[in-house]
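We were asked to recover a plausible sequence for a given structure. The inputs and outputs are reproduced exactly as logged, with field labels preserved.

PROBLEM: sequence recovery
POSITIONS: 164
GIVEN STRUCTURE:
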């Protein structure tokens, strides 16, 4: 397998996280449906944007001569690890708030990784990566704010003295 540069590895990581975010949106939508239908639309928009992010990442990966397969293999590894984390965190008695708390961690991870890719590309100066980061980072920052607000909304709706 072709060895990846640090920049290519970071591109693989944001790609894998976007792939995982699409699945996480679906899973948390199911947990949320019965409790707060108004949040489901936000989740569905996020999942659609995650799919678009993964698609754009894959197209940028295709511009790395001879590295596309290795970048996407690494992305799928990251996706697998993220999916394992989700299934560990969201066990069978997870509710909508647990789902949103998980997404708060996941979206913070995405913001962090995109920021790292941006910093790394400040010296690498790859134009495709630069365009991709400019498009994706504000979206991930909005995702993080949306799931944080969703968590707070669900928390406010819960009776703190009720047993779980
Ligand atoms: Fe996201």
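RECOVERED SEQUENCE:
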């Amino acid at each position: 397998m072709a060895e990846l540069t640090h920049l290519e590895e970071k591109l693989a990581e944001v790609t894998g996280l976007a792939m995982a975010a699409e699945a996480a949106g679906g899973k948390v939508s199911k947990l949320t449906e019965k409790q707060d239908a108004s949040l489901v639309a936000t989740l569905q928009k996020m999942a659609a944007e995650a799919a678009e992010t993964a698609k754009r990442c894959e197209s940028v990966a295709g511009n790395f001569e001879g590295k596309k397969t290795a970048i996407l293999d690494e992305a799928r590894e990251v996706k697998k690890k993220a999916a394992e984390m989700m299934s560990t965190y969201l066990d069978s008695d997870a509710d909508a708030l647990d789902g949103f708390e998980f997404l708060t961690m996941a979206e913070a991870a995405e913001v962090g990784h995109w920021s790292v890719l941006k910093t790394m590309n400040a010296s690498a100066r790859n134009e495709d990566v630069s365009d991709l980061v400019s498009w994706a980072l504000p979206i991930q920052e909005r995702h993080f704010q949306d799931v944080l607000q969703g968590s707070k909304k669900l928390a406010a709706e819960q009776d703190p003295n009720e047993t779980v």
